[in-house]
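anyone seen this seq b4? input:
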Amino acid sequence: MDTHHETVLVVEDDIQIQNFICYALKNEGFTYFAANNGQSALSKLVSEHIDILLLDLGLPDFDGMEVVRKLRTWSDIPVIVISARDQDKEKAAALDGGADDYLTKPFSATELMARIRVSLRHYYRQGNHEPQAVFMAGDLQMDLSKRLVRLEGHDVHLTPMEYDLLAFFFKNMGKVLTTGSIIRKIWGVGYGTDTQALRTLMAGLRRKIEKNPAKPRYIMTEIGIGYRLADE
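predicted toks r here
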């Protein structure tokens, strides 16, 4: 068993699921706290050093997203929502509301640990004092300082908008980005919610960086939610 220095807060009112998660964390060497309602969760977040939050939405005192909204006023630690709510709109709302990932019940301990590792890696990248200039994903490389993109050692020529889109993915590697967040980033807050332009832009980018755009290796589609740049 490896020992991790990160501390996890598990917020889950179903005691069986809470015990399952805590057991999995213990086996992986994580330190953890547990809470079964929103108020207790907020108290732990204020009084303890928490590195990542695992949060159920259906809490007995108030909705779990209220915890996220309050937390985001003072902290940017990773938040993984764990919920039985499996509607795409609810997943997108949680991600747009400040969560970093969304895991639908039921789930395996293996998947949960993988999501935790990805969220922590992304968080640590953001914590660099110097902005990261060169990003790598497999054979795909992006150098922001030189505005260069290379695939398998060869230059890839992108349009300015394709470049901005890929840079947004690299800066959020491993994180699910909703269509709404991408549209706001690329076209601005006043653009609206029409996704056709995004689909067209994405198709053009994939043709340039994917050997088989129909089976992408780098930018994965999260059906009904958005897209994700593969972290591994």
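Residues 12 and 115 are 17 Å apart (CA to CA). The helical segments are 15-27, 38-47, 64-71, 88-96, 109-126, 160-171, 179-187, 196-209. kinda curious what u guys think
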